[in-house]
Amino acid sequence: MATTSTRITIRIRPWVAAAACRSVPVDIFFPGEGYKGQYNEAALVCARCRVQPECLEWALTHEYHGFWAGTSERQRVQLRRAKAMDADVEAM
Fold this sequence. Notes:
Oligomer: single chain
Number of domains: 1
């Protein structure tokens, strides 16, 4: 049975219903110290996910912690910077 928070999440982000991570323990995406191995496990889940593009779009604008759409926190910072630089170039 879906919880209220799950129903709200799916209504806000309908792609979540098809996400490969729905059946995986959430802690592999939000590990603590010494996280390298857990991120590798999370990357395998993301690699087989059919909604990875939607997840990445969400993560780039809303998520600053954890592993989302096959990207680490550091990778998303780099992607945000590159996107901002592209926008600056287009504005010129």
